[in-house]
């Protein structure tokens, strides 16, 4: 699918991987709607890309429907969805005080990363299924997992479970939505220089980057965005999770 003139939605588009994706899609001619909880950054990102900003908690089904409707009113039916919204604060199942992890913190990570991704994707697909195809397809939904779905570290039980769920729903969703000519693909990034890591001292960033076999550095969010563009452009990419991690396999801690 070409990008020029297409309507695209990026959740978590105010910063990190999402912002880099919004930048690239807009630069290649897409009409981008940014969905994010961070109003200040989201509005700035929309101004920078000439697009639309919608404040949104991806776990809210009513707000999600309203945001999708607003994006469609502004740009037409969205053909491209990139789900980048996510959280991942580490927490052990048994804390240093000997107490179990509060269930609500585990549940919140699952709600945002897994249920939130499905919430937006299902509503996006329902709208897109009623649109006319563009060539041989109607559009593509791209979710963001993590290599933690495969080799999660100590303290990442909630995060790994949520991202494992994103990986697990990729193929069944691709199979289901094939009848509507909608593709579903997931990207599983490794260590990238997102806001979470950018606050670390340069020495700590370099140390983390050296864990990557090659290239021995943190990933640039623009490299994630470039992969997204490749997925959009290649209609044979469907029902797959693609690792982008420099061959990194994470140690237990």
TrEMBL record:
Keywords: Oxidoreductase
Native organism taxonomy: Bacteria, Pseudomonadati, Pseudomonadota, Alphaproteobacteria, Acetobacterales
Pfam families reported in the protein's UniProt record: adh_short
The family this protein is said to belong to: Belongs to the short-chain dehydrogenases/reductases (SDR) family.
InterPro entries xrefs: NAD(P)-bd_dom_sf (IPR036291), Sc_DH/Rdtase_CS (IPR020904), SDR_fam (IPR002347)
Organism name: Rhodovastum atsumiense
Cross-referenced PROSITE patterns: ADH_SHORT (PS00061)
One MF term in the entry's GO annotations: oxidoreductase activity
Signal peptide stretch: none
Record keyword Oxidoreductase present: yes
Superkingdom assignment: Bacteria
The protein, known as: SDR family NAD(P)-dependent oxidoreductase
């Amino acid at each position: 699918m070409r990008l020029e003139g297409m309507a695209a939605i990026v959740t978590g588009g105010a910063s990190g991987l999402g912002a880099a994706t919004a930048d690239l899609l807009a630069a290649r001619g897409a009409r981008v709607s940014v969905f994010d909880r961070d109003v200040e950054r989201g509005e700035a990102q929309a101004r920078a890309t000439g697009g639309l900003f919608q404040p949104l908690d991806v776990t809210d089904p009513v707000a999600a429907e309203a945001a999708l409707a607003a994006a469609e009113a502004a740009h037409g039916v969205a053909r491209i969805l990139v789900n980048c919204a996510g959280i991942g604060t580490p927490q052990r199942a048994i804390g240093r005080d000997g107490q179990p992890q509060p269930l609500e913190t585990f549940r919140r990570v699952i709600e945002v990363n897994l249920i939130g991704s499905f919430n937006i994707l299902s509503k996006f697909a329902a709208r897109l299924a009623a649109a006319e195809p563009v060539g041989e397809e109607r559009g593509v939904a791209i979710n963001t997992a993590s290599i933690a779905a495969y080799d999660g570290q100590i303290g990442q039980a909630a995060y790994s479970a949520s991202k494992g769920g994103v990986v697990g729903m990729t193929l069944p969703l691709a199979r289901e939505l094939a009848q509507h000519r909608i593709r579903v693909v997931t990207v599983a990034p490794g260590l990238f220089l997102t806001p979470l890591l950018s606050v670390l001292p340069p020495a700590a960033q370099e140390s983390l980057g050296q864990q990557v076999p090659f290239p021995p550095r943190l990933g640039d969010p623009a490299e994630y965005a470039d992969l997204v563009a490749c997925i959009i452009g290649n209609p044979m990419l469907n029902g797959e999770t693609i690792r982008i991690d420099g061959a990194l396999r994470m140690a237990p801690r």
